[in-house]
Amino acid sequence: MTDRQWDRSAVDREASAWLVRLDNDPDDGTLHAQLQQWLARSPAHRASWERTLDLSALIEAALPSHGRSLANGKTDADNVVAFTPRRHLRERVLRHWRGVGGLAAAVFIGLLVFPHATLRLRADAIAGTGEVQTVHLSDGSKVALSPGSAMSFQSDGNGRNAKLLRGRAFFDVARDPHRPFRVAVAEATVTVLGTAFEIDLEDAGAAVAVERGLVEVAYPERQLRDQLRPGEAIRLDWHGRHINENVRPDRIAGWRDGQLFVRNRPIGEVLAELRLWYSGYIVTRGVGVATRRVTGIYDLRNPDAALAALAKAHALDVRQITPWIRIVTVS
Amino acid sequence: MGRAEENVEGSNGLEQLSLFITQRADLLRYISIIAADAMLAEDIVQEAWVRFNAAAATQTIHEPRRFLFRIARNLALDDRRRRGLEEKLFTGDNEKALFVASDAPSVERSVEAASELVLIRAALAKLPDRTRQAFLLHRVEGLTLVEIGARLGVSKSVAHELVTDAVEHCRAICRRGT
After folding, report:
1. What backbone phi and psi angles, to 5 degrees, belong to A120?
2. Architecture of the domain defined by B106-176
3. How many CA atoms lie within 13 A of A207 on its CB side?
4. Which of A161, A185, A206, A253 could form a disulfide with A198 if both were Cys (CB 3.0 to 4.6 A apart)?
C-alpha cells in the first residue's frame, strides 16, 4: 500500500468515526462546529466525508427500518415482513424423541414426508427445503415461493385465481385489467390488477405487504376490506384482528435473496425460519425459545453459520447428533 | 370536537412551531453538513417540518427535537441514495453511459443497485458478533453509544470503536465488490 492510499484509509476511518458521533448526537451544535473544523482541514477530508455519507445512505437502505420509534418512545411492531411464526410438524414429532439420537429420528422421516404427500395432490408448485422456487404462471405472472411453501393456480376468461396453501410467496403480477388476479389465503382474498406483493400464511393468520401497485385485501367473514399501497402491509389473524404496518418496499421479501432481517423477535421464530433452509433437522427446547428476543441479519443459505452466530450472541447450546440433527437449547 | 380539545391542540401546534423556529438554524447547519447539495438543505428542512407536523397530528412526540433531526437526516440520506443511483444510471462515466440508450433505468442497473444492498447485508452478517450487535443497536434500534456500552458491558469509546469498525467493514466490502 502506498503512503497516499494509507492516508486515504486513515482519513476514511476518521470520517466514519465522525459519522457515528453525528448519528449518536445529531442535534449537538458543538459537535457540528467541531466537524466543520475537521472538514475544513483539506479537500481530501471533505471528499472522504462525502464518500462516507454515500456509504451511510447505502447502509440505511440495506437495514431494516428504525427500531425504536422516537415519536412514541416504544419499540414498534416488526416492520420486517419476511418472517412468520409457524408451528412445525417436525418439531412436534421430534420433541418426544429428543435425546434418543439419530436412529429414532431417521425412522420418522417417512412420517415427516407424509403431509407433503397430501399437499401435493392440491398444489401446483411446492418449494423444497432450502430453496426459493420461482414459478412462471401461464398468464405471465411470476411467483417466488419461500422454502416449504405451496400454491395452486387456475386461470380462465373471468379471472386468475391463485391459492396460497402454505408458507409465503412473493407475487409479481402481469397487468391485465380485464382479468383480476386473486389470491385466496384461507378465508381472506387478495385482489390485484398488476403489482408486486408478498403474502405470508401462518397458523394464526396471514400478512400481506405491497411493493408496487395497488392491492385489496378482503376478509368477508370479519367484515374487513382494506386497500394497500406500496410500502403498506397488513397482518390479520383468524379471529378478525388486524394491524396495519409500514414496510420499506425494498425490504419486502428479503428471503428471496437468502437474507433474514429480524428485529426483536422470539428466538424460536428465527430457528423456525432456519429450519426451512436446513436440510437436516433442528430440534429446539428450553423456555427461552419463546421468551428470548433477538435482533440481527442472518444468512439463510448458511444455516449452520447463522446458528453459530445466534449461539455465540445469545448463549444457546447447540449439540450436533449425526450430521443431520442439531439440538438447540435456549435457557 | 369540544372547545377544550381545540385549545389543547392549538397550544400543541404553537409549541411545535416555536420548537421549529428555535431549532431551525441548528437543523439547517446539521443538514448542510450531510446533504449532497447545500442548496437543498432549505428544502429538506422544510419537508422535515411538514412530516414532523403530520406525525405530531396522530401521535405524541416524546423527543421532538431528536425526532425532527432524525426525519431530516433520513430525507437527506434518501436524497443522496437517489442521486447516487441516478448518477450511475444517466451520467456515470462516459464509457458506460454509451450503453444506456433510454432515460429509463435499465434492468441491469437496478440489479446492480440491488446487489449493493446484498453486499452490505452480507458484510454485516460476516461481522464479529459484538461488532454487529453494537452496529445494529446503533443503526436499527437507535440506542445511544452510552446505552450500547451499558448493554454490551463496555465503555462508550469502545462502543464507538465497534460501530466505526462495522462502517469501515462495509466500506471495504463495497470497494472490493465481494
Report:
1. -60, -30
2. Orthogonal Bundle (1.10)
3. 27
4. A253
Phi, psi (degrees; rounded to nearest 5) at B70: -65, -45
- A66: cell is 428504525
Per domain, the residue ranges of chain B are 3-82, 106-176
Domains along the sequence of chain A with CATH: 3-62 (no CATH), 123-250 (2.60.120.1440), 255-329 (3.55.50.30)
Touching check for B96 and chain A: CB below 8 Å? no
Q: What is the DSSP letter of A68?
A: B
| CA–CA dist B136, A147 (Å, integer) | 27
In this prediction the ipTM stands at 0.81
How far, in Å, CA of B123 to CA of B173, rounded? 7
Q: What is the pLDDT of residues B52-105, one digit of tens each?
A: 887 777 677 777 888 889 888 988 988 887 777 656 554 444 333 333 333 334
Interface mutation target, options A6, A23, A295, chain B, most CBs of B under 10 Å: A23
Contact B30 A32 (CB under 8 A): yes
- Stretch (H or E) spanning A320: strand A317-321
CATH 1.10.1740 is held by the domain B3-82: yes
**Are the beta carbons of A297 and B124 separated by less than 8 Å?**
yes
Given a cut of 60, whether residue A100 has pLDDT beyond it is: no
C-alpha closest to that of A54 among B91, B132, B177, B87: B87
Q: A312 vs chain B: nearest CA distance in angstroms?
A: 7
How many CB pairs below 8 Å do chains A and B form together? 156
SS3 of A209, please?
strand
What is residue B138's DSSP assignment?
H
Query: pLDDT-based confidence at A91, cuts 50/70/90?
Result: very low
What are the chain A neighbours of B133 within 8 Å (beta carbons)? Answer: 296, 313
Using alpha carbons only, how large is chain A's radius of gyration in Å?
24
Cα distance between residue B23 and residue A230, in whole Å = 33
CB-based contacts of A90, cutoff 8 Å, min separation 6: A112, A275, A281
For residues A253 and A144, the answer to whether their CB atoms sit within 8 Å is yes
Q: Of B91 and A167, which is predicted with more confidence? A: A167
CB–CB of A295 and B60 under 8 A?
no
